[in-house]
Design goal:
The chain is α+β, with helices and mostly antiparallel strands and 678 residues long. Helices cover 48% and strands 24% of the residues. The protein contains 21 helices and 22 strands. The model has no long low-confidence stretch (mean pLDDT 79).
Length: 678
Amino acid sequence: MSEMIRIAKDELSNLQERTTRLAQEKSCLQIINHMMMKLSETPGLENTIENMLRAVLDTIGGTNLIVYAINRDIYYADVFGRAKKVEAIDDPQVNAVLQKRAAMEYEHDFSNTLMNTPEFTRAWTWVVPLVVGSDIVGVIKMENLHMDMRELRAYLPAFFNYAAVILKNEMLRQSTLKRAYDELSKSNEVLEKEIIEHKRAEMALIGEREFSRSLLESMADGVVACDAEGSLTLFNRTARQWHGMDPRKLPPEEWAKHYDLYRSDGVTPLLTEEIPLARAFKGEIVVDAGMAIVVKGRTARFILANGSVIRDESGRKIGAVVVMRDVTELRRVEEKLRRANEELEKRVIERTAELHKANEDLQLELEERKRIEARLLVTQFSVDRSADIIFWIRPDGSYSYWNRAACELLGYSDDDFLHLKTCDLNPEHTGVAWQEHWEELRRCRFLRFETLLTGKDGRRIPVEITANHVEFNEKEYNCAYVRDITGRRRAEEALKKSEERFRRLAENARDVIYRMSLPDGRYEYMSPAAAELSGYAPEEFYASPQLIRKIIPPDWHGYFEEQWSGLLQGDMPPTYEFPIIHKSGEIRWINQRNILIRDEGGSIIAIEGIITDISERKRVEDELHKLNDELEQRVKERTAELQQKNAELGKMNKLFVGRELRMKELKEKIKELEGGKA
């Protein structure tokens, strides 16, 4: 005789209840699956709406079903065949659902169902939004249901989500190519702005807020990043889903093959130098780079990537980041729904086994929460001690969070901030002005502006505010970073005054002050004195870099080209002197004193100098040369005259000397004669 199995009565009752519950769940899943299959029988927007009405009517019932399809226009359809375009929705129940973005149930008297069944005394009307992502594409209203469908409530969202996607697809199929192109252009502009804003915010928050990873995990866009060595360090949730794996430390040469990266055609593998993250890592700013992720066994996913290198405050490269926007969302949603249907069937079978693992999973979850709490403590410490002020502001202007820097700069205590609002610190944000500012932040998601904040002592402190719209736990916040720019304002004012002094000096100087960029030879600045010196206004020099060659006399062109060639090689004398042709045709001489300007690498980038009109000096020098020449000629003529006079005097001197000798001889003879007579 076979051994009899004894089961406790309570345990048997629990097993029976469990079996009944699993049977009910399977029945509900089969109903939902049948409704989904019926919804996709015939393509086309009108057919889809009719199938939706018929599927709900045949399965759930009711006296009337109404569908509002919401695209750019609003379309109305019901089970009685009425279909029309309406300007607005005048049904208060439907408008309430649109406002709350959630399904609503209304209970009322059963007499509205037009049925005389005594078993029922109450009826219900359901109004459910059809949502795809953040868009409401329609609303379905089911009137006078004669049974409480609460047993199906847990499973109907899958049908309505699927119906929303199908309805959205049909709406998109009826859109014209021009409309789709315009919407895509607008979407790309929004995407570019979002990526730029995200990149700026991310660069400002590096090393300050570790919990930004939780925000990345919640993004619909894929985000990947690498460190300073080029090793992959971050795949957010979306990226892991797209690639089907976590990041591995691989060299960039293996990224394309390992992560199934292809060009936009979905066929040609990406070269290493074409991978957006590799390009960003090399310093390139990547904007809307198209590529495809073709994971083996999956449909190709086409994306647009935007990215850049990441640097710390000192300018040192610490990695690169790329943000990827999926442009095949509709096909991805359909694929997920098909997989979800299969998984639901499997989960009915696997649920019992999963219950045995619940305790182990719970323990792992508790450990993970402890690790997350530890990371959050580190993040909180960093934020509290940030040099910049950090505020979390509620929509009514009150402060949810402030760090230590806020108290130190503004002079308020923690107790003060509990009662302060933004209008107390910034009088510009009062009443309507604050609401307009909040609406603009909600629309743009990111704002950066300068303003004055009032400290507790009445000081007006200039600051730069970077505001970010954040939704957290279904609440809105303004996460604002406030930087004291008092020093920068002072520096800007000093620089402005210095520039004004230099401009007054340059514009009133008689000499010409100039700056020319090299090697293109374009004038970047020419003082007004150029018009008096050359006859040409500074604007004419800006418009024609070759004007300087035009005003140099032809016989000086060789000199100019020789000096220009030497200048480009860095060989420049301290001064140049050469003539120019005034616009009136007059020849004028100039003296040009120069300084070469080099960049940080030592390359020549410009020449600066002062040009003086030395025409008068040259005229005086020419007159002096003429006078010197005349004087030398007169000296030569006078010397010749003197030499002639000297020759004549020599002759006369010789004549006189001969006469004196003869006179002496005569005197001696006379004496001799006189002595002989005696």
